[in-house]
Amino acid sequence: MRSSPRAALVATLFVSVAETGSFSLAAQRMHTVQSNVTAHVKKLERELSVALFQRNGKVGLTSAGHRLLSHARRTLAAQDDALAVFRDSNTPSGVRRIGSMETTTADVRLPRS
């Protein structure tokens, strides 16, 4: 998977199918239709030239699917971590030191940490 918004979507859909064991349940979880999930997974399978799921009654991962699942989870976790850095970038963090002359702060009392 290349790094793109589509790749993140496909990884999320793939993980959802793997976790639920169902294309329909994955679609419900992702608030989309089953045909959309199936189309994305089939396209991913074509791109990778492997079958990721066994589709004989119950949906299960193939050995290639198991290998991809761990990569997909790590990729999505890394993406979440990266986004969290920017979401929290407006929140000050770390130690703040304020300096002033003693005569300036004679009437001001700062809270102790």
Uncertain regions spanning at least 5 consecutive residues: none
Q: Strand arrangement, largest sheet?
A: 1-2
The span between the termini is 48 Å
Q: Please give the share of residues in helix.
A: 55-70%
Mean pLDDT: 85
Shape: rod-shaped
Oligomeric state of the chains in view = single chain
Beta percentage is 5-15%
Output the structural class.
Answer: mainly alpha
Overall radius of gyration: 24 Å
Q: Quick one: biggest sheet?
A: 2 strands, antiparallel
**What is the number of beta strands?**
2
Count, helices = 4
One letter per element, helices H and strands E, the order comes to: HHHEEH
Can you offer a commentary on this structure?
The protein has 113 residues and is mainly alpha-helical. 57% of the residues lie in helices and 7% in strands. It contains four helices and two strands. The radius of gyration is 24 Å and the shape is rod-shaped. The model has no long low-confidence stretch (mean pLDDT 85).
